[in-house]
Amino acid sequence: MERRCMFISSFVLIVQLVQAQDPTGFINVDCGLPHRESPYNSLPTGLAYTSDADLVKSGKTSRIAKEFEPDYTKPILKLRYFPDGLRNCYNLNVTRDTKYLIKATFVYGNYDGLNVDPNFDLYLGPNLWTTMSSNDTIEEIIHVTQTDSLQVCLVKTGISIPFINVLELRPLKKGMYVTQSGSLKYEFRRYLSNSDRNIRYPDDIYDRKWYPMFVANSWTQVTTNLNVNSSNLYELPKGVMSTGVTPLNPNATLNITWTIEPSTTKFYSYMHFAELQTLRANDTREFNITMNGKISYGPYSPKPLKTQTIFDITPEQCDGGACLLQLLKTSKSTLPPLLNAIEAFTVIDFPQMETNEDDVAGIKNVQDIYGLNRISWQGDPCVPKQFLWDGLNCNNSDISTPPIITSLDLSTSGLTGIITQAIQNLTHLEKLDLSNNNLTGEIPGFLADIKSLLAIDLSGNNLTGSVPRSLLQKKGMKLNVEGNPHLLCTAGSCVNKRKDGHKKKSIIVPVVASIASVAVIIGAFVMFLVLRKKKASKFEGPQPSYIQASDGRSSEPAIMTENKRFSYSEVMTMTNNFQRILGKGGFGIVYYGFVNDTKQVAVKILSHSSSQGYKQFKAEVELLLRVHHKNLVNLVGYCDEGENMALIYEYMSNGDLKEHMSGTRNRFILNWGTRLKIVSESGQGLEYLHNGCKPPMVHRDVKTTNILLNEHFEAKLADFGLSRSFPIEGETHVSTVVAGTPGYLDPEYYRTNWLTEKSDVYSFGIVLLEIITNQPVIDQSREKPHIAEWVGLMLTKGDIISIMDPTLNGDYDSGSVWKAVELAMSCLNPSSARRPTMSQVVIGLNECLAAENSRGDASRDMDSKSSIEVSLTFGTEVSPRAR
Q1: CA gap 193, 237 in Å, rounded
Q2: Would the pLDDT of 877 be above 50?
Q3: Is the N or C terminus of the chain more exposed, i.e. has fewer CB atoms within 10 Å?
Q4: Pick from 52, 42, 159: nearest CA to 112
Q5: Taking 60 as the threshold, does the pLDDT of residue 554 lie above it?
Q6: Alpha-carbon distance values, 430 to 412, 448, 516 (Å)
Q7: Binding site listing for ATP
Q8: Cα 292 from Cα 724, distance rounded (Å)
Q9: Transmembrane stretches, by residue range (predicted)?
Q10: Whole-number Å distance between alpha carbons of 398 and 176
Q11: CA–centroid distance for 289 within its chain
Q12: Which DSSP state fits 660?
């Protein structure tokens, strides 16, 4: 009965006999390899690698530093890097509707001598594949191609220059690694053995790379010299399936753990089994398979010397991201459970459809025929929007259909020859501009056959012959052929006679006289209204406009506008129907979007269940509409339409400081100089609120998650929903209900409800301790849970080194660090009157930064200072705590 129930579950067992295949269809690209050295056979695989010169239109070539060369095989020694342009793409010819194992290898090897950790994005077509932030890694994905072309794009996101060493594609059978949706991003692939050998092609015919895994104090090695039949659908290498493990304790479970990030990510696991031992007549090996305590398959017994693969046909999730796979011996089993190999992949969805295939073919033909060499003309022509090809406009309003090209502007592009027939493949074109080139020949009639094309500018060329009658007669057509001295126009609207009787060409504007007359009248009327409005304003003075709340918020004063208000429909358009989520907070969800199809923005939508309401929304809008500083996040606009409220900010592509300190964004470690620069810049923004605004403003929620970083790692302070001003001149504080984030709250403000700008100084001091220690603000496992108390305790003990972030590896100027610690502790003085102003803090931080930047060979040892002046009198009655 138990076996029957498990059959009903979502796991399936697939066993299939197939013949091995040769590596037909393998694509092996040595990036940076010169043409003259291509191809060559690489050892130990024997695979032939070719140059990438014909697959990419940009980039420069280099080689990893000599000291790293002995550690790598020949394909990895060279690389191509891309200092120019934002997006640079490889274009590979593939087989449509084919499942490929795609591998991209990145080994920095200090090729440029700069020792700069990489940080850039990798795209597959128009969709983000992963962020590259490691000096040495292989990114792997299993993906089904949609067309005959595959683009692998490297995208610059900051100061790091993208690079790549090797690009490899391996076609797989359709029945392998089947998913309900999406592609499979490699998580791990292990064969269970105490060997130190990695296994790949030719042992694995698909060139999957298998790494050994063995836990010496928990597992026992099981091997066989007999032939294991590994010819199931997955065709595992014999070296993988001829070894396995069982628990050291025969009655114990066999456990394998891993962590998935983020915790909501779905994944597939594939377990490969074969019985390697000859069982006696009274021996039984039977076990159940559980994931995080829930039975997923069983009871199961491996087949003698025969490979079987067990996997789930639906993706799984692990609570909190912690996954525990267990093989548990059943009551009737005399032998412990056995496992030979395991693979795991996370599901990655690629929601953005590629541009219409015919449009792509058409525009690439145009590019080839005219020899257009534009750095932006790489990858998908239309999407993502931030990489739209220069001169194109596209329609991507319906996410369920491929984007289409609607406008092509090749004016002043040095075009020669005739108007190419490749343009007729752009069947969705609405506007075509080929003006100011050196095009010759006749105007082709096919232009009239493109049904949607109603605006054509061919002026400033050397076209000859007659204008096709079909173009002249096409309803609604706007055609400009001015400046073509040899063009003959036979239709009346295209013909003027010179005094010598010859024809003179003019602009064709198929608008009847009556319509022109109406246009003149309308124009005159509009001018009259404009002049009257200007005249009225001269006498009446500027009248402010207001947003009127329509959802029962009449008790709240309306928001003064500055022409930055968007409708909710515009918000939906700019976010592509809220397609890409950047993050979530107390206000609501933040989405990625575009304004005017070019400016990247972050759109914060107020959730109806948000703990923050219209008051905070109004406060942030009104503050940012009147406050402008290079270190304060810029408000592009807002939406206030009924219950729909949104804040539209400039897009900060490198996220927040907290993500970089915690490592959740990537594994890139911020050095000490960068940390100082970030807090110095955010401090300048805070100082402006305190001293540059009239009346002064208090932020009230200064923390690392509210310090955002743009593509140049320039810092800007964000999230002003809790900000308050001092409306009365000379007022030193306001009495308010306490608001802020636990851990960052000023204890004096918490006790008294008296808010001053020194409350922000306290919070900023906590931020300084975070960049110094890289420790959580509150950690109950510490001797002193709050970071300020803990640092104070360590300093009074003389334990200076323990407070420094160990990931910095001592790479900092000790005087700079000491100054920063002193500055942080002065910001945290229990008495607000004894804390420095933000102006003083910024000056101090700039001194720290100058010391770090001027650091020479003579380093100063932190141990040389045994004490530091601190003033900490925190007691339980004033400790910051959650409310």
Answers
A1: 14
A2: no
A3: N
A4: 159
A5: no
A6: 20, 11, 23
A7: 604
A8: 48
A9: 507-531
A10: 32
A11: 36
A12: H
825 phi and psi, to 5 degrees? Answer: -70, -30
Across 179-183, 285-289, 660-664, 845-849, least confident range: 660-664
Which carries the bigger pLDDT value, residue 527 or residue 544?
Answer: 527
C-beta separation of 436 from 459 below 8 A: yes
How far, in Å, CA of 752 to CA of 737, rounded? 10
Pairing of strands 211-213, 183-192: parallel
701 is catalytic: yes
- pLDDT given at position 523: 54
Tell me the three state secondary structure of residue 813.
Answer: coil
Helix axis angle for 672-691 and 838-853, nearest 10°, is: 160
Burial of residue 867 (CB within 10 Å: 0-12, 13-18, 19+) is: exposed
Count of H helices and E strands in the chain? 16, 47
Find, among 277, 269, 252, 256, the residue nearest to 214 by Cα: 256
Rounding to the nearest 10 degrees, give the CA dihedral for residues 766, 771, 777, 780.
-140
Burial of 9 (0-12, 13-18, 19+ CB in 10 A): middle
**Domains of the chain by start residue, with CATH:** 27-172 (2.60.120.430), 186-348 (2.60.120), 357-513 (3.80.10.10), 543-651 (3.30.200.20), 657-883 (1.10.510.10)
Question: Which segments of 781-813 does DSSP mark as H helices, in order?
Answer: 787-796
Separation of alpha carbons 590 and 877, rounded Å: 37
pLDDT mean across residues, the chain = 83
Distance separating alpha carbons of residues 281 and 290, to the nearest angstrom: 28
Residue 158: its pLDDT value, please?
86
What is the mean predicted confidence (pLDDT) over 343-366? 94
Please say if the pLDDT value at position 104 is more than 90: yes
Residues 6+ apart with CB under 8 A from 628: 634
CA angle at 757 for the pair 754 and 763, rounded to the nearest 5°: 95
Q: How confident is the model at residue 739 (pLDDT cuts 50, 70, 90)?
A: low
Q: Of residues 207, 457, 656, 701, which has the active-site annotation?
A: 701
**What letters, b where the CB count within 10 A reaches 16 and e where it falls short, cover 141-150?**
bbbebbeebb
Total residue count of the chain as it appears in this document: 883
425: which 2 tokens? 């493949």
In one letter, which amino acid is 435?
A: S
Whether 537 shows a pLDDT value over 80: the answer reads no
Question: Residue 511 has what pLDDT?
Answer: 36
- Residues belonging to the binding site are 604
CA distance 223 to 236: 16
Instruction: Look at 333-347, 483-497, 782-796 and tell me which has the smallest mean pLDDT.
Output: 483-497
Count other Cβ atoms within 10 Å, centred on residue 504.
13
Residue 472: strand pairing partners? none
682 phi and psi angles, rounded to 5 deg: -65, -35
First to last CA, the chain: 53
Distance CA 640, CA 340 (A): 60
Provide DSSP, 61-121: EEE--GGGGGGS-HHHHEEEE--SSSEEEEEEE--TT-EEEEEEEEE-TTTTSS-PPP-EE
pTM of the model: 0.57
Query: Would you state the structure tokens that stand for residue 349, as one six-digit string?
Result: 């969805």
123 touches 379 (CB < 8 A):
yes
Q: Which helix or strand (DSSP H or E) is residue 413 part of? A: none
538 versus 482: the higher-pLDDT residue is 482
Q: Which residue has the tokens 């915790």?
A: 263
Query: What does R_g of the chain's alpha carbons equal in angstroms?
Result: 33
Does the structure show a pLDDT above 50 at 628?
A: yes
Residue 305 pairs in a beta bridge with none
Residues of the chain with pLDDT > 70: what percent? Answer: 81
Model confidence pLDDT, tens digit, residues 759-808: 999 999 999 999 999 999 998 888 889 999 999 888 877 666 789 998 88
Instruction: Give residue 621's pLDDT band: very low, low, confident or very high (50, 70, 90).
Output: confident
